[in-house]
Design goal:
Length: 389
């Protein structure tokens, strides 16, 4: 075929092929990013992770048309001297590696802090020392609680945007006390953000920080007992999927009153793709990536997922589809919660022209169809074995 027309960046310049060192490429976000880069660009990816289950179709072995485009490097960034070599050979490093399931923050606070701060340090250092660009994945949790959450419940100011909309360059980071170990994650992420920002200010590191707001979709987390630890507690999408697959009531923590905005993983990946290919617009920025139009309470999410799953599976919902549990029962001592998370979209809009597209209903349909197809048979087998023994 005739050579494809060169793709252009947002300023009309041809996009040069990049070599990307992607740390944590085998996770939920990494797997979608690898697929995107393989399908739509000619960049080369060094996929670094301790597992490759979610990208096996891309790397084990790489299909013929991707030979030379993607390679898997099984290594732990905690203790592997190959890491610096890979960063040096790449133009850009993307760091996705971290413990990021809330059930771990208060029960494994040391692992959480080490994983999110200490283990990320060498990555930042190698990028800075070798003048390599870094895209670092942080979290919307660095905002902590909203200012409005400290007002009385019926206070009119709670309805004013300035009391809850989260802005990258203006909103404060508001965490609970140290005994609320939930905030170990947010605090570690905040400190690594500050360190990266300081490397930019003092040593000229070219960085972009991404703050994901509840990205969800296929391959997120794990289904306990099927492809993850049987006692493990994943994030809410996988918890509720697991309950629906097993025909158990969905558990609403502390009444399910917390609010979240959910964005479809494929929309969010578009934003990351734009950051990769528009360094002049992305360097030095912190970006919220979320969908402010998809806000629900956790209770509303449970209701929607119950309804959508009934359509997908053809099984009617349970008579009692939800039950309340306390956070202490569900997560243990030291849990706390973010009340509300509405991302301000001004910066990402201005710099990258990005907007999320997929409404919550549509993304739940796609995701629950995937969950049903992927897990239903395995769960049936497992449940019939358990009842036979
Ligand atoms: N949650 C819940 N039931 C579950 C799992 C989570 O009610 O089975 C709640 C949790 O307390 C929080 C929200 O759902 O208010 C989102 O939790 P998630 O683990 O997805 O992460 P977060 O958004 O807090 O980072």
């Amino acid at each position: 075929p005739a050579a494809a027309a060169a793709r252009l960046d947002l300023d009309g310049n041809p996009i040069a092929p990049l070599t990307i060192c992607m740390i944590g490429a085998g996770g939920f976000i990494g797997s979608h990013l690898c697929e995107k880069l393989m399908a739509e660009t000619n960049h080369v990816v060094y996929a670094v992770d301790v597992y490759c289950d979610k990208i096996r179709h891309l790397v084990d072995p790489a299909p013929p048309h991707l030979q030379g485009r993607i390679s898997f490097h099984r290594l732990n960034i905690k203790n592997d001297s190959r890491l610096e070599g890979l960063i040096k050979m790449a133009d850009l490093t993307i760091n996705l590696a971290a413990i990021c399931t809330p059930a771990d923050y208060n029960t494994r606070p040391l692992d959480t802090i080490y994983s999110n701060f200490i283990d990320a340090l060498p990555v930042v250092k190698y990028c800075s020392e070798n003048n390599k660009r870094l895209i670092h994945f942080s979290t919307c949790e660095v905002y902590g609680k909203t200012i409005g959450s400290f007002l009385p419940t019926d206070h009119p100011l709670r309805k004013e945007a300035e009391f809850y909309v989260l802005k990258e360059d203006e909103s404060p980071c508001i965490f609970g006390p140290i005994v609320k170990q939930r905030w170990s994650y947010a605090c570690a992420k905040q400190l690594i953000e500050r360190l990266i920002f300081a490397e930019g200010a003092e040593n000229g590191l070219e960085f972009t920080i991404v703050r994901p707001f509840n990205w969800i979709g296929p391959r997120m987390d794990f289904i306990p007992g099927v492809d993850g630890p049987s006692e493990g507690v994943p994030r809410v999408l996988a918890c509720f999927s697991n309950n629906l697959l097993r025909r158990e009531p969905l558990k609403l923590v502390d009444g399910g009153q917390s609010q979240r905005t959910f964005v479809y993983i494929k929309d969010a990946i578009e934003a990351v793709h734009l950051m990769i290919e528009n360094p002049a617009r992305a360097n030095g920025q912190i970006f919220n990536v979320g969908n402010p139009n998809n806000e629900v309470t956790v209770r509303q999410l449970a209701e929607m997922m119950t309804e959508v799953y009934a359509n997908v599976s053809g099984e009617p919902p349970l008579d009692e589809p939800m039950i309340d549990v306390s956070s202490k029962q569900f997560y243990g001592e030291g849990y706390d919660d973010s009340d509300k998370r509405i991302p301000d979209m001004t910066i990402i809009n201005k710099q990258l022209g990005w907007n999320p597209k997929t409404p919550l209903k549509d993304l739940l349909e796609t995701t629950l169809t995937y969950q049903h197809k992927t897990y239903k048979e395995a769960i049936k087998r497992q449940m019939s074995q358990a009842s036979a023994s």
